[in-house]
From TrEMBL:
Gene3D superfamilies in alphabetical order: Transcription termination factor 3, mitochondrial (1.25.70.10)
Organism: Gossypium gossypioides (Mexican cotton)
Family: Belongs to the mTERF family.
Phylogenetic placement of the source organism: Eukaryota, Viridiplantae, Streptophyta, Embryophyta, Tracheophyta
Name this protein carries in UniProt: Transcription termination factor MTERF4, chloroplastic
Keyword Lipid biosynthesis recorded: no
Pfam family, one: mTERF
Keywords: Chloroplast, Plastid, Transcription, Transcription regulation, Transcription termination, Transit peptide
Amino acid sequence: GVTLAAPTPFHPSPATGNRQRSSPSKALSRIFNSRKVSSLASTSSWVYFTFIFDIGVRNISYPENCEIMKIKSCVGITKPSLLLVHSELPALTFHKTKLTWTSTLRFPSNYERTSGSVTRFHCSVAGRTGASTSVSSSSSKSNTVHLSRKQVKPSSLYSRPSLSNMKKERIANRAKVYEFLRVLGIIPDELDGLELPVTVEVMQERIDFLHKLGLTIEDINNYPLVLGCSVKKNMIPVLDYLGKLGVRKSTFTEFLRRYPQVLHASVVVDLAPVVKYLQGLDIKPNDIPRVLEKYPEVLGFKLEGTMSTSVAYLVGIGVSRREVGGVLTKYPEILGMRVGRVIKPFVEYLEGLGIPRLAIARLIEKRPHILGFGLEERVKPNVASLLEFNVRKASLPSIVAQYPEIIGIDLKPKLLGQRSLIQSIIDLEPEDFGTVVEKMPQIVSLSNTSMVKHADFLKGCGFSLQQVRSMVVECPQILALNLDIMKLSFDYFQMEMQRPLDDLVAFPAFFTYGLESTIKPRDKIVAKKGFKCSLSWLLNCSDEKFKERLNYDTIEMEEMETMPSFDMKSLMEPRSDESDSDYEEDSDDEYA
């Protein structure tokens, strides 16, 4: 038992200070001889406790004007002569003249037992009001005194703003930023939920940086989420990485207009793996920057998604693995095309027109951009337009193979315009216009000035309007060749070969052969042998075939070959030219 009594002042000995030595056994006797637990006097102004240690007595007294004081003690007794005490001293906070004290003590109710037990004692003192209760257990009776009063919530010296105040402050700051953006003409509606700078100054810094990159307010409104990117943490690291790869700074503006999401990316996690994957597709390191400039969206693709399946499909239809790097360099948009929705339907449609799959693969190797022609929006309507303008269905494969762009342009207006022009300069019949397109589909993109000049040249050479029309229907290429070369060939025809104009009317393709490489050498050989032959027999054959003809005694009619036409088999032959970089765009140098 323990007795809590009214204060008995403690006077320390001058020699020992606040600590007095006493016998442990006597101290135990004083504490536990009393079995009665006294109620605390309600008029007490001091609370006084005595704790017994094996080394002496410590007296702790607290004034009533302390607001909060807590002492937790655990006493375990195994022998009457030994008392173990573990004390946790309280943390004190002074604010009001109130006392709220909770103490937890564990001590045996019967000190004479050799094996003690632990019970709990709760005491709460606050002001003048108190209450006590006692609880007895089956093993040993213990008394519990509990004095309680409604505790007053303390107020910390280090006070924090409440969550509601912090939330209100955030809302106020965000409203200021929104108002600042509206003044600049930026619509912040899509920014709700996005982490933004808390100050207008930081937002101003981001907008100024974007302006330096060439982006306008309109560009920012197209993708306002770019305002969530930090200049130092996001924008500068990404742009530095692109610059080190070789992406030209002059292209940054267009790059970011097309794919502003790149500013959210992590260089290590998002960008570097994509670049490494592109290099693994045989795209040369020097071509990587050009690929990114042409198709920046590729930086947002998953490595094992659309990119890998599109490449695998192209290889499956016959595109050479050695050509994959060049194909992707010319037209990296292929990496974003879905096989089932875009590439496969396009290939199957061309097969349905009569173009062999291997020929389609060769077309893709040379002009991979044809895969970007919308099948429903452009390709099918253009094929229908060709048939409408008297092009034979059997000629469609040859037309597409010669000039794949014809199925990707806005064709019908061009067909109308070119037919009207040719009809006006050489009086061409509508039915013949289809034949002209079959033999030279590029005529739909030929400039008006070029056709007029060539028609005038032929008329100036002495050909009649009817003869010019016949020559154009037979060989439309004469409307697109280099005029200077045509003049040299015609001068040689007149001065050296001294043939009639009717020979040119019968074989207008004469102008398509090289003067120095073919016409002059063969003409001299035939003249030396004394042969009399047509221009077609002289020119319309390979060098090997021409040598065979020179061994004939006579010129047989079956040796007379028809006008040269496009051979689909030539397109299906493997490509022999391998360039270091396939980035250069193809051009039709043979046409004016």
